[in-house]
From TrEMBL:
SUPFAM superfamilies: Multidrug resistance efflux transporter EmrE (SSF103481)
One matching Pfam family: Multi_Drug_Res
Family listed: Belongs to the drug/metabolite transporter (DMT) superfamily. Small multidrug resistance (SMR) (TC 2.A.7.1) family. Gdx/SugE subfamily.
Keywords noted in UniProt: Cell membrane, Membrane, Transmembrane, Transmembrane helix, Transport
Spans through the membrane: 33-50, 57-78, 84-100
Name of this chain's protein: Guanidinium exporter
Lipid bilayer topology: Multi-pass membrane protein
Protein's cellular compartments: Cell membrane
Primary site of residence: membrane
Length: 106
């Protein structure tokens, strides 16, 4: 279950990053409130997953999911640039996430 909680926490990290962008510097109330709720949920699930997963593994995978997810949302939803170098960087992050998961004894 810890891995499931961790993946959901990572997805929620992407969601709160996107809602933070929509909040326009916390100047819009509803996106700001959504950001805070999603942050709390993401951190809560991360903390639950850390009960049985090593800190380094859990935190690295959580931030990796958030980084790659935000990158994908930026390209697909916000129309950000999808250069070869940015895509290669995202692929390297995914490789790091996979290696971290495979190196974990859990």
């Amino acid at each position: 279950m810890a891995w499931i909680y961790l993946v959901i926490a990572g997805i929620l990290e992407v969601a709160w990053a996107y809602s933070m962008k929509l909040s326009e510097g916390f100047s819009r109330p509803w996106p700001t409130a959504l950001t805070l709720v999603l942050m709390i949920a993401s951190f809560g699930l991360l903390s639950i997953s850390m009960r049985s997963l090593p800190l380094g593994t859990a935190y690295t995978i959580w931030t990796g999911i958030g980084a790659v997810g935000a990158f994908v949302v930026g390209i697909l939803v916000l129309g950000e640039q999808a250069s070869l170098m940015r895509i290669a960087a995202g692929a390297l992050i995914v490789c790091g996430i996979v290696l971290m998961k495979r190196s974990s004894p859990h």
